[in-house]
Amino acid sequence: MPFVPSALRPTARAGAVLVALTAAAPLGAQGAAGRASDHAAPGATTAARQIPPAAEQVAAAVLPLPAEQRAGATVLGYSPEGRLVTLRAGTGAMRCLADDPGQPNFHVACYHQGLEPFMARGRALRAEGVRGEQVDSVRFREVGSGRLAMPRTGGALYTLTGPAGSWDAAAGRAAGARPLFVYYLPYATAATTGLSEVPVRDGPWLMFPGTPKAHIMLVGAM
Prior knowledge:
Strand content: 15-25%
Structural class: alpha+beta
């Protein structure tokens, strides 16, 4: 489950409740956080840019995470045929999505395993042809009915988003990619958190308050 500035990434990728850290303006940052669930569904194919070797995909995918969490993260990425598969099974609490070669820009995301049902549902719905706000409409109904689980204590999401060519495999870094840190906190509001629901550039604020994908955003430096 999912705030990437539209200038960085054309489509919004699913979210749940988050805290976002990004160098982009608060309003533009909304597209990046949601992208985590927009990757192709497992088994679906993607095509456009050449698909990098698995090791390279893994190295880029875990880059948004704090250094101590990278080695244990599970990584989903793309097979030579362009199918979304598990590239590496991890032992830690974080799951990462490799850059989608079917998309024009660079985007990698990592989120807590407790958000996987929400994120995976978003990927599945898009694979079925559901688009735009309807994806969240379906997920919100399913969370409300108890069919789709959200973590009671919330969960973190980290992303890096930038133009094509941002990832330098030889250097092991993504120059020019912008970070976003989000913390999903389902149904959070200004009243329950004390956070503003008005986007700000220099402090935390609450996005999608009162919904299953409520999240805290914090704009950070590049």
